[in-house]
Design goal:
- This protein is an alpha/beta fold.
- It is built from eleven helices and 13 strands.
- The longest helix is centred in the C-terminal third of the chain and has 16 residues.
Length: 427
């Protein structure tokens, strides 16, 4: 486990590879930060840290969230920057610059019309840049807003890109952004070895990790979580003004929905638990006004389920009955699950987000529906394994374990993770 050296502008942590932290290696104390006072890593790249890209051939990994505070996309800023040569772009599921989901998705490989540069999607059959895609590249710049949950693809792409950088002897710069659901809360089982490096379960981290992208990059590197024991030559550009207790809507940074199914901050908060329903024959609310806040199916006795859940008295949440019909989404190639079918559902009504534990709420909802409808609930085990990173949760739910017993089952490993992550926290 590395120790924290004293503050320097560049500092070498005590593990084998070079890891540079661009504004000090000790944690910053919490501070009462006002809104509109957060500087993200992207806004520091061309000023204090331009030397990281000057004279180099640059690859950019980003999506529509990769913007400067003035709205300029990093692809355009890097392309216009005279002292570096942007040579290739890597995007995610949708258009690299836009979250207008009525536009066609990016092809797996294409030409960016604004710059004329090649661009590749890391969301389809390829999640890790190939050697050919990175030919001639000196440094990779990575800037993507994540959502705070391991099963969302962005932190997995970070790991795969770091592996590619290490294998090709290319530096990587991770530009930091806030964890939208704060940097304090952690929950869920640590990924089992059997499911490591699947899409949704990269690294030995819990489902709710409580870290920023830059902190995760340091963790992946320092704890040798990259496959083959590789370590990348890693630079991270910290934020200024952020502290671990801040929710995204307290940062003053404009919210840019990461997905059409995560249109609001409230949907992000619920998603951290109710995404589990993607592995069941139950609608997770896609195609409704409140995706991931609404959960349901035609066969659910929602009154009984809500009663069972509210009897648990989980902190910061009540479970209300709702009826909804998922509708086709124009930006999607396929209909949402149970499209056109009347669903009896549950609405996750968060009453106090500071004490709400979304993953526990999601697990409890699965438990309650299974308690009342075990014969009708169907499990997509492949998807469930990807989401949970373990068979233990499914086995406990199927075996009739009470939520309190399930929550207690991951506490020891979660406490161990708290200790593991400590040296890598920047704020």
């Amino acid at each position: 486990m590395p120790t924290q050296p004293s503050i320097t502008i560049f500092c070498l942590l005590t593990f084998a590879s070079l890891v540079y932290i661009t504004s000090g290696c000790t944690k910053q104390p919490d501070q009462n930060t006002s809104t509109n006072n957060i500087t993200v890593g992207a806004d520091r790249l061309f000023t204090e840290y331009s030397h990281l890209i000057d004279g180099k051939r640059v690859a950019l990994v980003a999506n529509h969230s990769g913007r400067m505070s003035d709205g300029t996309h990093l692809a355009d800023a890097l392309f216009e920057y005279p002292d570096a040569d942007l040579v290739v772009l890597f995007g995610m599921e949708f258009n690299i610059r836009s979250n207008d989901y009525s536009l066609p998705r990016d092809a797996e490989s294409d030409i960016d019309p604004e710059t004329g540069l090649p661009k590749h999607s890391l969301y389809g059959s390829i999640h890790k840049p190939t050697n050919e895609m990175l030919e001639g590249v000196d440094v990779i710049v990575f800037d993507i807003q994540e959502v705070g949950a391991r099963f969302y693809e962005h932190i997995n792409i970070l790991g795969f890109v770091m592996e590619a950088a290490a294998e090709n002897d290319i530096e990587i710069i991770v530009l930091d952004r806030p964890n939208p659901i704060t940097g304090n809360h952690m929950d869920g089982f640590i990924t089992d070895n059997e499911f490591l490096y699947g899409f949704g379960a990269f690294g030995k981290v819990p489902v709710i990790h409580g870290m920023t992208m830059a902190e995760l990059a340091l963790l992946y590197n320092g704890e040798r979580m990259l496959r083959g024991g590789h370590q990348a030559t890693l630079h991270v550009v910290e934020m200024q003004g952020w502290n671990r207790s801040m929710w995204y809507d307290e940062t003053g940074i404009e919210w840019s929905r990461p997905s059409p199914n995560l249109p609001t901050f409230e949907s992000i908060l619920a998603y951290a638990g109710t995404c589990l329903f993607e592995g069941l024959n139950i609608s997770e609310g896609r195609g409704t006004e409140k995706p991931f806040e609404y959960i349901g199916a035609p066969w659910i006795d929602h009154q009984a389920v809500a009663g069972l859940l509210n009897g648990l008295e989980l902190p910061g949440v009540t479970f209300e009955t709702i009826e909804f019909t998922p509708e086709r989404m124009p930006f999607h190639g396929r209909d949402p699950y149970l499209a056109g079918e009347h669903c009896n559902g549950i609405y996750v009504n968060v009453t106090d987000r500071d004490i709400f534990e979304p993953y526990k709420a999601g697990v409890a909802m699965v438990w309650a529906i299974h308690e009342l409808h075990a014969g009708q609930m169907e499990w997509n085990e492949r998807t469930w394994d990807r989401l949970t990173g373990t068979r233990r949760l499914m086995n406990m739910l199927r075996g009739g374990s009470h939520p309190a017993e399930i929550f207690a089952a991951w506490e020891d490993e979660l406490e161990a993770f708290r200790r593991t992550r400590e040296p890598y926290l920047l704020y």
